[in-house]
């Protein structure tokens, strides 16, 4: 019933407020991730991103709003990156996945948070953490403007995808643990086995003083491992596939997308 109601509202919205094609074309031209989409993908993503803009609030910090150009094409590009994760899912699953927040806040710069963590010996450690973004179960998605400006290419970094991955992760709990709700064709045991193998490899690399094949932030927490791998899946799929091919194939099934097919030939990292 609720799915039918959502679809009716979406169709009504599209009839009243069609996607401004010139603005969508401009938004896509600014980000390689969006240029590389097929026509069908671009049409579907444009509709969802336009609807996202009208159902979620996008707010600039006052220090940014006073002197930072952030036109409708920029806002639509931001929304498109948020909706990219669920592009392969049904309308109902897409709506449900993004229903846990109502605002994206953009701050002038990276920010600091006091963090307390309990180690394996039961000792509490407090430290100051610098962040490019953050999210919580029912709170807004927060991103830093400089990191937003660095997102959208095929470089393995995307702060919007990272924070939205956390939102997906929290779809079955209030915790960020790297274990989001799974589709029926993926068993929990398989998900755990594949991600634990990646986690173990990252830890081994750091223990031996070696650079991991993906950003070492993935080795700080299982939830961060999932979010960083999502960044690579969409924005450096060749790197992720070469480093962890079983994980790449698992995420293809989870997201129901094939980012390798979108990767420009000049960007592809040779296998080996």
Describe the protein.
It is a single chain. The chain has 272 residues and is an alpha/beta fold. The protein has a single domain, classed as Collagenase (Catalytic Domain). The chain is 51% helix and 11% strand. The strands form 2 sheets. It has a 4-stranded mixed sheet with strand order 1-2-6-5. Strands 3-4 form a two-stranded antiparallel ribbon. The protein is globular and about 55 Å long. The mean pLDDT is 88.
Could you name the key traits of this structure?
four-stranded mixed beta sheet; globular; 13 helices; two-stranded antiparallel ribbon; alpha/beta; 51% helix; 272 residues; Collagenase (Catalytic Domain)
Brief sketch in words of this structure:
This protein has 13 helices and six strands. It is α/β, with parallel strands linked by helices. The chain has one domain: Collagenase (Catalytic Domain), CATH 3.40.390.10.
Instruction: Work out the helix count.
Output: 13
Name the structural class: alpha/beta
Tally of domains: 1
Q: What is the strand arrangement across the widest sheet?
A: 1-2-6-5
Biggest sheet overview: 4 strands, mixed
- Can you give the mean pLDDT? 88
Percent helix: 40-55%
Q: What is the distance, rounded to the nearest whole angstrom, between the alpha carbons of the first and last residues? A: 50 Å
């Amino acid at each position: 019933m609720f799915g039918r109601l959502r679809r009716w509202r979406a169709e009504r919205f599209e009839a009243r407020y069609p996607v401004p094609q010139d603005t969508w074309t401009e938004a896509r031209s600014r980000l390689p991730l969006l240029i590389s989409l097929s026509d069908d993908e671009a049409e579907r993503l444009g509709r969802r991103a336009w609807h996202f803009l009208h159902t979620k609030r996008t707010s600039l910090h006052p220090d940014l709003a006073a002197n930072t150009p952030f036109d409708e094409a920029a806002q639509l590009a931001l929304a498109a990156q948020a909706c990219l994760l669920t592009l392969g899912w049904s309308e109902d699953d897409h709506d449900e996945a993004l229903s846990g927040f109502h605002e994206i806040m953009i701050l002038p710069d990276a920010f600091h948070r006091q963090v307390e963590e309990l180690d394996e010996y039961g000792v509490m450690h407090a430290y100051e953490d610098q962040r490019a973004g953050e999210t919580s179960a029912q709170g807004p998605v927060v991103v830093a403007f400089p990191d937003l400006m660095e997102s959208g290419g095929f470089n393995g970094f995307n702060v919007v995808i990272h924070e939205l991955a956390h939102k997906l992760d929290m779809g079955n709990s209030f915790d960020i643990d790297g274990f989001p709700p799974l589709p029926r064709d993926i068993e929990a045991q398989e998900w755990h086995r594949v991600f634990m193998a990646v986690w173990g490899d990252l830890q081994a690399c750091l223990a031996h003083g070696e650079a991991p094949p993906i950003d070492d932030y993935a080795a700080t927490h299982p939830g961060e491992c999932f979010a960083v791998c999502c960044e690579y899946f969409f924005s450096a799929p060749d790197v992720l596939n070469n480093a962890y091919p079983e994980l790449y194939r698992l995420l293809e099934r989870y997201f129901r997308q094939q980012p390798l097919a979108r990767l420009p030939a000049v960007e592809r990292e040779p296998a080996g």
